[in-house]
Design goal:
This protein has about 160 residues and is α+β, with helices and mostly antiparallel strands. The protein is built from 4 helices and 10 strands.
Length: about 160
């Protein structure tokens, strides 16, 4: 992530959801795309559609930020081997013991971000530029913090570095 500027005003939640959608698109490129569309029971989706399993719903690529932003609680996401299928667990859908462990993972993710911010001397009102391959998203640091609080991706790492 590097310094940048933000062209439009959106809420931190919308921006955090947009970052989460970008990670889903980025990570989905490594999955296998089936040549045919099969039934919902197989949890695959046509190109341009993401299906969240088990039974959390589906979204078009364009609607992905709104779908993620409307979720009622923090969520853990993990790509499957099939492009367009994402495993999905809301914190509110698990028992108390598992919820506590999942919340701790979110806390560790946020603590890592905060320690890197301190190390780099990044100001709290600074805009940052998360980069995911060819996508760049200039967002305020507050949106990146909220992203850490709301979205946890299995098998996806994140770091904050200097632009220099």
């Amino acid at each position: 992530m590097t310094a940048g500027s933000r062209p439009t005003e959106k809420s931190d939640r919308e921006l955090a959801a947009g970052l989460a959608a970008a990670v889903i698109r980025f990570e989905g490129g490594a999955a296998h795309q089936l040549g045919i569309h099969v039934s919902h029971a197989r949890a695959t989706a046509p190109i341009g559609i993401y299906r969240f399993v088990p039974a959390a719903g589906e979204s078009s690529t364009e609607g992905l930020p709104a779908f993620l932003g409307a979720l009622p609680s923090p969520v853990f996401l993990s790509h499957t081997a099939l492009r367009g299928a994402v495993a999905f667990t809301l914190l509110t859908d698990v028992d108390v013991a598992r919820r506590a462990r999942m919340q701790e993972e979110l806390n560790v993710q946020r603590a890592h971000l905060e320690s890197r911010i301190l190390e780099l001397g990044i100001e709290g009102t600074t805009d940052v530029l998360p980069e995911l391959e060819s996508e760049q998203h200039a967002v305020p640091l507050s949106a990146v913090r909220l992203w850490c609080d709301l979205f946890r991706f299995e098998q996806v790492g994140m770091d904050v570095g200097s632009a220099a």
